[in-house]
Amino acid sequence: MCAQNSILSDKESITKIEFGLDSIYNFQFNQVDEIYEHLDEKYPDHPLPPLFNAIIIYWQHFPVTPNSPYHRIYMENITQAISDADLLLDEDPKNPELLFMSLMARLLVMQYYADNDESSKVIPYVRKAYKLAKKGFALDHKIQDFQFITGLYNYYREAYPEKHPVYKPMAYFFPEGNKELGIKQLENNWHHGIFLDAESLSFLVYISLNYEGNYKKSARYTKELHKLYPNNPLFLSYRIRSLLLQKKYNKALPFIQELETNQASNDFFKTMSLIYRGIYEEKKNKNFIAAEVFYQKAIDLSDSYKPFINSRISYAYFGLARICKNKDRKKATSYRKKAMDLSSSAHLNFD
Q1: Fewest CB atoms within 10 A around its CB: which of 65, 120, 129, 225?
Q2: Which residue range(s) make up the domain with 241?
C-alpha cells in the first residue's frame, strides 16, 4: 500500500487533479469522471479518489443537504476517504499527504454538519481533526495547502470567540492564533495552493463579510472568484451580494440577470436570484409591491433547502420588514425577528 502514497511526485496525476478541480469549481463536469477513474485505477487504496469524487458530488448537486438524494453517496465517499487514510497512516503515521487527506475529509464532514445545523454531529470529529491540524502546522513547507489549515486556525482561533463570547473559556485550551497572519496564509494559499486555492479564496470572501464586515474587501475577493470560475452560480451569487451590499445596484443588475438565466441553476439558485431581484426592485426602483412578491416567492421556494439556506433567506425577511415598516409595524417587527433568528450575521441585511 505505501508505494502508492506519493501523489505529489506524480506530475501526470497532479496536472489532472488541478485541471479537474478547476473544472469542478467552474461547473464543467464533462471530464471529471474520467479523472476520478484515472485516480481510482492508479491509487485504488488511497483516500484521494473518494475525496475527489465527494467534491464532484458536492458541486455537481449543490447544495447537498440531509434532504438531498445525494446525501448518502456524498457521505459514503468522505467516510471511505477517512477510512483509507487512517488505514494507510497506521503503516506510515508521518506521511504528510495522508495526514492532509485525513484532515481534509474530516473537515468536509464537519463543515457539512455545521452548514446543516447539526453541530452536535461535529463533536466526534473535533479531537482527531485538531490532532491532525497540529501536525499540519509543521508541514506547510512540504504541502503548500496546509497553509489553508493553518490560516483558518490562526484566524478563527481569535475571531470566533470574539464574535461568540460564550466560547471564550473553551478557547483558552487552544494555542493562540493571529488573525492578520491567518489572512496572509489564506491569501498565500489562494495564489499558490494545489488542492485548496479556490477554497482559500472562498473563505476569504466569507471572513471579510461575516467577521470583518468589510464589503469593499469582500468585493475584491468575489470579483476574483467569479473571474476565475465564471460558470459557478454560487460564486456569481457572491458577486451580486457584494455589489448590493455596497449599494452598486446598476452594476449588480446584469449579474442578477445572468443568475436568473444560468443553465446550472436549480431551485436553490432560483431562490437566490429572486432575493437579489427583490433587493434591486426595493432599493433601486422603489417598487415595493414587486419586491414583496419576489421576497415571498423566494421564501416559498426555499423550504427544501432549510436549514442550509436559512441565513440567505434572512435577506428576504429583512426586506419584507423594511417594506412593512411604515404600513404595518406589527408585521414589520415579526419579519425583523424572523430575519434575526435566521441570520448568522445580522449586519448582512441590505438596509
Answers
A1: 120
A2: 213-351
